[in-house]
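This part of the workshop introduces the protein records we will be handling. An example says more than a description, so a record of this kind follows:
>
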Amino acid sequence: MINFIKERIVFLGLCVQNLYASIKYIFSGQMRFVHAIRQAAAISYDSLMISLSISFVAAAVITIQVSKQFLMSGADSYIGGTLAIVIIREIAPAFVALSIGARAGTAISAEIANMKVTEQVDAIKTLKVDPVGYYFAPRILSAAITVPMVTIIAELIGILGGMFVAYMTIELHPHRYIHSVWAWLALKDFYISILKAFVFGILIADVCATQGYETAKEVGISTTQAAIKSTVYMLIADFIINFVFYL
């Protein structure tokens, strides 16, 4: 148990160290932004449809679960606001990050692990290029920018999906639904949602890249560990953000 905790602390320290090196590499002007654009397509664009599908389905399921109970208690006009709060505060940023981590995060880990195993990282070092900055910086920057973008779209899809399901199940008029959304939501919720997505994006890229970079032989095991660790760290960060802003 002690060794397990010690390994996690050491790994977290490596993640912080690599993140610092990546930020330093970005602001040094050495990073080519064309690499960041390519990574943006690989990280978020390729995961866009699955992220939006999950957000829509989650909103639809929640609406089905609560609509009849709200209708029976005469609180059907609150369905839109309740659903919007749940989607923007938690569902959209968390589910988008989980889907991107499962798809793109594991790909990042596998890609860097293969480079490490096939000694491509050593080849980069012989050219006097910082491998952490070269491999990590474009991925971290791309995830930090594009994950919030996908989250915004997922929030819109989720709210509209809830409106559609509410109309189909209990015939709630879209005007009452949208009015409830505007009445309940605050800019603070939107800002915190974007902050969550920003932090989750950095965590996914940094943790998965670090896991791949520390791989010695087993690429498959490393990829699995990357998915697990990024999910755990993301949930911890989610708790901390909620604790700070909503307690």
Q: What stands out?
A: The mean pLDDT is 88. Residues 32-240 form one domain.
